[in-house]
Amino acid sequence: MPQFDDVHQQAYSSTLGMWLFLVTEVMFFGGLIAAYTVYRARWPEEFAAASRHLLWPVGFVNTIVLLGSSLAMALAVRAAHLGRDRETVRWLVATMVLGTAFLGIKATEYYIDYRENLIPGASFRVPAEGHGEAGAGHGGETAASLDPGHFQMFFVLYFFMTGLHAFHMIVGITLVGIFAYLVRTKWFSGHGGTQVEVIGLYWHFVDVVWVFLYPLLYLIDIRP
Amino acid sequence: MSNEEDYLQEYTLRSWLLTTDHKRVGLLYMASITLFFFVGGAAATVMRLELMTPKGDVLGSPDAYNRLFTMHGVIMIFFFLVPSIPAVLGNFLLPLMIGARDLAFPKLNLLSWYVYMTGGLIGIWILLFGGVDTGWTFYTPFSTMFSNTMVVTAALAVFITGFSSILTGLNFIVTVHTMRAPGMTWFRLPLFVWSHYATSLVMVLGTPVLAITVMLVALERLFHIGIFDPKLGGDPILFQHLFWFYSHPAVYIMVLPGMAVISEIVPCFSRRPIFGYRFIAGSSMAIAIFGFLVWGHHMFVSGQSMYAGMVFSIISFLVAIPSAIKVFNWTTTMYKGAVWLDTPMLYALGFIGLFTIGGLTGLMLASLGVDVHVHDTYFVVAHFHYIMVGGAVMAYLGGIHFWWPKMTGRMYPEIWGKLSALIVFVGFNLTFFPQFILGYLGMPRRYYEYSPEFQVLNVMSTAGASILAVGYVMPLVYLLLSLRQPAYAGPNPWGATGLEWQTDSPPPVHNFHDMPVVTAEPYDYSPEAFQEEHDHAVSHASR
Ligand code: HEM
Ligand SMILES: [Cu+2]
């Protein structure tokens, strides 16, 4: 790294760089969240009704899985700083496994949505009120009285936001895999403490995004 | 002279395409940006020819004209103005000015050029195979529903280029934070660096919003999902909010770097320390921050609420304050200074004049009532050309002339330089001043035919454009010719302060032979020594 004076400067630079990158990511999701806020404020009934068609327990399980992966990542960072290479690799692999599990669950959920014609576009159908037995007909409004366009808007935003999040997960899993390999082959000077920490920042960020998306999308109006 | 090689020593194509040296990346950008500038300029020339007569007799169809002004706008904004000064001069100078060996992330820097080229080549591809007719603003629902041109491809091109600007901004911010030489405190940073820091903040915060917005347009077009289409439950005004949330701050991405250049040139050629250093630095930051709050002044007639219009109008007036601060500081610096009218200074003076006119007409546009009258007329076209072309392009050319000896080690023929500055200034005013009047009289923009009473002013404008074109081609010719001379410019032909002038011209690969330590305030010019220095500079120039 000829441009740096010492490893301290290098560590500071890469951490700051990742933080800034995350700021751009916040703005990226921010545009979508702004759109979501506008439309939800305008059409609260449709959004609440549409939200009831998401499977909140599945989202809940996924939240737990993802938080687990964040824990694994935190342990990987710690191990890397302590110079325990094998342990670092193990925790990184655990992170990947949990991340992949998240994506698997998400894909299943998408498939169910697809079966119920909830994918926006020509084949979109406004679902009959209630998901299975859950909350049929409550709240007074019936599906027929709600605007189908606004109904679909919820799903547009849902698929876009969770899709973008899933894309970030895929990138993250790939990067974590590469880093695990690099730590294993002792490619980093030192034990890769800074590098693993930087990738960890990214991973936690993606996690935090989900922690916002989950209540915004799934929990608007659940009733037991 | 030293034994370490200067950064231009290697010649192979490979050495350029794989370089991570910030100076070389700057030159890569310079070459590609020049190309795009002339492609966009060619489009402008054809447009002006079309508008010379009230009938559509050059292009033959309104569609062709629509595609032309769209490509002109897209190329000039996204492939020229946004990257021009930061990616060329910023890349080259920022590390030199703070006494660093390179940017913090040299590979990312090279990557940003490749990303830029990918976006740019897609842009050229669109130009050759079909075009886009939405205007560079991609307004919905036209862009998502009705236009049957290559909107998705254009959105992709803009999306991709956006990332190069994000990467550049990120790199600059980190570099300023972590790579400063010993003694280079925040308030010793050259104003060029302050402005680029502010610009980078806007790039990092604004560009992602644009990226997501054009992505939504592309998705809506492809899948008819209805984010912006009222028939499907969407709202076209939301597009305008998201778009202008980026695109108003983007005008500061275009003009803050221009101000950066002017803040270097003015004290050097006035032989006085810049007046109000902290105010200029602070006003850059203020512009960057306030710039995010005024996007609604583009939407006075969009159907947003009247109260929103009033608030946006008032805040827009507030952003004028930091810009005015800068203009006052530059003029105060010149006042009682010993002003050398060399080429860079001529361009800088041109900048100040044109920027002031553009800024004052901007205040007119920010007043609700006036805007309703001149909205979407040539008044607006004249206004933004005064700001962006009169501002950013003048500053860019001034900066290129100022640092050309540093970049290449060569002096250009001063007389040609002065002449080009003069021609550009005259041509520019003749092109765009009549457009203020045209707009005020009611000629709408983006029309390829107009009623005959507007012809005289349009002919003036077209005549001006041909003069302007000459002024833009000249520097290209004599600067390139100057490369045939040996590199005799010397480290500091202008007698300027600043770390970049303390190393060889062209600089060695790692910028400095010994790491500099900063002990003095910036802009330490003294009026006494100016005469000898100027003679010295002139003798350098004519060696
Ligand atoms: C060489 C002199 C130039 C001439 C004669 C010229 C002429 C024009 C004309 C006739 C239009 C169309 C106005 C309308 O009907 O909306 C236009 C639009 C525009 N020009 Fe220029 N232009 C020139 C240089 C530039 C430069 C150097 C830039 C930027 C660096 C620039 C940026 C733009 C933009 C952003 C638009 C708006 C396009 C749109 O409305 O979609 N122009 N110009
Ligand atoms: Cu604006």
Automatic annotation (TrEMBL), chain B:
<comment type="pathway">
    <text>Energy metabolism; oxidative phosphorylation.</text>
</comment>
<dbReference type="GO" id="GO:0016491">
    <property type="term" value="F:oxidoreductase activity"/>
</dbReference>
<dbReference type="Pfam" id="PF00115">
    <property type="entry name" value="COX1"/>
</dbReference>
<keyword id="KW-0472">Membrane</keyword>
<keyword id="KW-0812">Transmembrane</keyword>
<dbReference type="InterPro" id="IPR014241">
    <property type="entry name" value="Cyt_c_oxidase_su1_bac"/>
</dbReference>
<feature type="transmembrane region" description="Helical">
    <location>
        <begin position="150"/>
        <end position="176"/>
    </location>
</feature>
<keyword id="KW-0813">Transport</keyword>
<feature type="transmembrane region" description="Helical">
    <location>
        <begin position="463"/>
        <end position="481"/>
    </location>
</feature>
<keyword id="KW-0186">Copper</keyword>
<keyword id="KW-0349">Heme</keyword>
<feature type="transmembrane region" description="Helical">
    <location>
        <begin position="197"/>
        <end position="223"/>
    </location>
</feature>
<dbReference type="GO" id="GO:0004129">
    <property type="term" value="F:cytochrome-c oxidase activity"/>
</dbReference>
<dbReference type="GO" id="GO:0020037">
    <property type="term" value="F:heme binding"/>
</dbReference>
<keyword id="KW-0479">Metal-binding</keyword>
<protein>
    <recommendedName>
        <fullName>Cytochrome c oxidase subunit 1</fullName>
        <ecNumber>7.1.1.9</ecNumber>
    </recommendedName>
</protein>
<dbReference type="InterPro" id="IPR000883">
    <property type="entry name" value="Cyt_C_Oxase_1"/>
</dbReference>
<keyword id="KW-0614">Plasmid</keyword>
<feature type="transmembrane region" description="Helical">
    <location>
        <begin position="110"/>
        <end position="130"/>
    </location>
</feature>
<feature type="transmembrane region" description="Helical">
    <location>
        <begin position="27"/>
        <end position="49"/>
    </location>
</feature>
<dbReference type="InterPro" id="IPR023615">
    <property type="entry name" value="Cyt_c_Oxase_su1_BS"/>
</dbReference>
<comment type="function">
    <text>Cytochrome c oxidase is the component of the respiratory chain that catalyzes the reduction of oxygen to water. Subunits 1-3 form the functional core of the enzyme complex. CO I is the catalytic subunit of the enzyme. Electrons originating in cytochrome c are transferred via the copper A center of subunit 2 and heme A of subunit 1 to the bimetallic center formed by heme A3 and copper B.</text>
</comment>
<keyword id="KW-1278">Translocase</keyword>
<feature type="transmembrane region" description="Helical">
    <location>
        <begin position="243"/>
        <end position="263"/>
    </location>
</feature>
<feature type="transmembrane region" description="Helical">
    <location>
        <begin position="275"/>
        <end position="295"/>
    </location>
</feature>
<dbReference type="GO" id="GO:0006119">
    <property type="term" value="P:oxidative phosphorylation"/>
</dbReference>
<feature type="transmembrane region" description="Helical">
    <location>
        <begin position="378"/>
        <end position="398"/>
    </location>
</feature>
<feature type="transmembrane region" description="Helical">
    <location>
        <begin position="69"/>
        <end position="98"/>
    </location>
</feature>
<feature type="domain" description="Cytochrome oxidase subunit I profile">
    <location>
        <begin position="10"/>
        <end position="519"/>
    </location>
</feature>
<dbReference type="GO" id="GO:0015990">
    <property type="term" value="P:electron transport coupled proton transport"/>
</dbReference>
<feature type="transmembrane region" description="Helical">
    <location>
        <begin position="346"/>
        <end position="366"/>
    </location>
</feature>
<feature type="transmembrane region" description="Helical">
    <location>
        <begin position="307"/>
        <end position="325"/>
    </location>
</feature>
<dbReference type="GO" id="GO:0005886">
    <property type="term" value="C:plasma membrane"/>
</dbReference>
<feature type="transmembrane region" description="Helical">
    <location>
        <begin position="419"/>
        <end position="443"/>
    </location>
</feature>
<dbReference type="GO" id="GO:0046872">
    <property type="term" value="F:metal ion binding"/>
</dbReference>
<keyword id="KW-0560">Oxidoreductase</keyword>
<comment type="similarity">
    <text>Belongs to the heme-copper respiratory oxidase family.</text>
</comment>
<dbReference type="InterPro" id="IPR036927">
    <property type="entry name" value="Cyt_c_oxase-like_su1_sf"/>
</dbReference>
<keyword id="KW-0679">Respiratory chain</keyword>
<keyword id="KW-0408">Iron</keyword>
<keyword id="KW-0249">Electron transport</keyword>
<keyword id="KW-1003">Cell membrane</keyword>
